[in-house]
Amino acid sequence: MSLIDSFIIPEWPAPTNVRAIVTTRVGGVSVAPFDSFNLAFHVGDNAVAVVENRRKLLTALNEIAPCGPPQWLQQTHGTVVVDAFSEPKIRAQNVPEADAVTTTHRGLPCVVMTADCLPVFFSDRNGNRVAVAHAGWRGLCNGILENTLARFTNPAEVMCWLGPAIGANAFEVGAEVRDAFMKIDKSAASAFVAKANGKYHADIYELARQRLVKAGIGMISGGEMCTVSDGERFYSYRREQTTGRMASIIWLA
To answer: Does the predicted TM-score (pTM) go above 0.85?
Structure first.
């Protein structure tokens, strides 16, 4: 199996010039517990292995459609959105603190990394702008999706795809998480199911859909996978704590 065969390809009505993939844990050179296609330097993996995995990734992306080095981020569970650097050398050398990245330039991959948090892809109908956001519960609650959408001219012309994240049956949270969402939108109650221990199961996919619909997006796809239960394909911080990261990548061909 080639590396490309291990990628998850979003099923959404994006324009033909939009390329988007999600990597899995399969196909790299990292050893346990990062086996094998870990793309993050900050998790404790051998840096040499991460460099090789990123090299393999760029080769595979170029087999899909020509592109330069990806725009990586230093994610903070915040709400900052950045434009990817247009110059390849600058892009390769700069890792801004942000949780979403967008571009209108061709051949410029935008990336977020996850291991339970929700990656959300954005594209306008005309294929002029794309973006990808990292939405942990804090970023989601505080507006990372709305901030990303604000980079587009017309929300009604934007479509989204929800990538692999922790499923509702695995995402146990305290009352403070539910309260944080409820303070912003009372309809968030439908995304939480009370448990006997006083905690809740939270549906991060439903929470994201609610926020996107409220922001004016009518085309939302994806949201069926669970990173915790699918250990063969996905890293999961909730399941393993010490683990790697997948990459969600979108670019314009």
So the answer is: yes
